[in-house]
Every structure is written in C-alpha cells, then in structure tokens.
Amino acid sequence: MLTIRKKQNVISEHRVHEADTGSAAVQIALLSRGIDELTTHLKRHPQDNHSRRGLLGMVSKRRKLLKYLEDNNPRNYNAIVKKLGLKK
Fold first, then answer.
1. Which fold has domain 25-84?
2. pLDDT (tens digit, 9 = 90+) per residue, 44-59?
3. CA geometry: angle at 29 spanning 27 and 34, to 5°?
4. What's this model's pTM, rounded to 2 decimal places?
5. How far is 38 from 21, CA to CA, in rounded Å?
6. Contact present, 78 and 86 (Cβ < 8 Å)
7. What number of other Cβ atoms are within 10 A of residue 17's Cβ?
8. For the chain, which residues make up each domain, given as ranges?
C-alpha cells in the first residue's frame, strides 16, 4: 500500500502542472508503483489470492490508461513508458 508521502513523491515527479493530481501520466505512475509493491508482497505470500486479484485489476487499469495515452498523446505516452521502464 502506498503511503501518503510515497504518493506525493510520485505525483510531484510525474505531474504536468502544479495542480495536476489526476492526469493519465500520474495515474499510470501511481498504478505502476502500487503494482511493484504488490508484486513484492506476493513473492513473500504466494497464496494471497485476494491481493493477486487486486493486482490483476491494477494491471488492467494501467493497460487501459496506457492505451488511452497512446491514442491521444503519443509523445507523452513514449515519455512515460521510457521513464517508468515499461514494455510497449
């Protein structure tokens, strides 16, 4: 689970303007951070199927946001994929 401080760091790193907290790039970055944390949790607790289902939902939501960003702003899409180290 992301703490408030971790969330604020991710938001400040990926925001487009000062008041930006919900753009697609910020949402993708927050989901990626949550996915990373949940993945490490599931490596320690492999039978935690409830968390695994949540992880699948987060991955699906991130995929949809990436598709949206790719269709509407390809330059920003390429930048966020490169910055987060995601596969295209």
1. Helix Hairpins (1.10.287)
2. 999 999 999 999 999 9
3. 95
4. 0.92
5. 22
6. no
7. 6
8. 25-84
